[in-house]
Amino acid sequence: MQIGALMRIARKSKNFTVAHMAELMGVSQPTIVRWENGTIDVPCSVLLRFIDKLDLSPREFFNSVSSKDTSPEVIRILAKVQKLPPNKLTILESVLDTWIESD
């Protein structure tokens, strides 16, 4: 799942509207939408501020998609991915990017 999608899930879990989040962040509503849609990249400093405005820790933010919302297949694959060394993660990411771009 991409960062923007996690941002949307976390924002909605707090019942924050795009308008409210934009006001808290000091940005326009279209900027929030673009971050959440992945149209524009979110700098790390902005992401940390976003998480803070939701009164979440980074751990809570990244765990905001509960396992009950994730299929057993994805959970099984993620468990395997977590065991990979960094060099193999890089290769896996390249393969996934290629597959996603070809769809």
Keywords:
single chain, 103 residues, mainly alpha, 434 Repressor (Amino-terminal Domain), 7 helices, 68% helix
Quick structural gist:
The chain has 103 residues and is mainly α.
Question: Could you please describe the fold and organization of this structure?
Answer:
The chain is mainly α and 103 residues long. It has two domains: 60 residues, lambda repressor-like DNA-binding domains (434 Repressor (Amino-terminal Domain), Orthogonal Bundle); 36 residues, no CATH class. 68% of the residues lie in helices and 0% in strands. The protein contains seven helices and no strands. The mean pLDDT is 86.
Please tell me the CATH architecture of the largest domain by its name.
Orthogonal Bundle
User: Would you give the CATH topology of the largest domain?
Assistant: 434 Repressor (Amino-terminal Domain)
Q: In terms of structural class, how would the helical and strand content be classed?
A: mainly alpha
Strand residue percentage: under 5%
Given this structure, which CATH class of the largest domain is correct? Mainly Alpha
CATH superfamily of the largest domain: lambda repressor-like DNA-binding domains
End-to-end separation in angstroms reads 16 Å
Q: Which regions are unreliable across 5 or more consecutive residues at pLDDT < 50? A: none
Q: Average pLDDT across residues?
A: 86
Biggest pleated sheet: none
Shape type: globular
Helix proportion of residues, in percent? 55-70%
Whole-number radius of gyration? 15 Å
Query: Treating each run of at least 4 consecutive H or I residues as one helix, how many helices?
Result: 7
**Count of individual beta strands:** 0
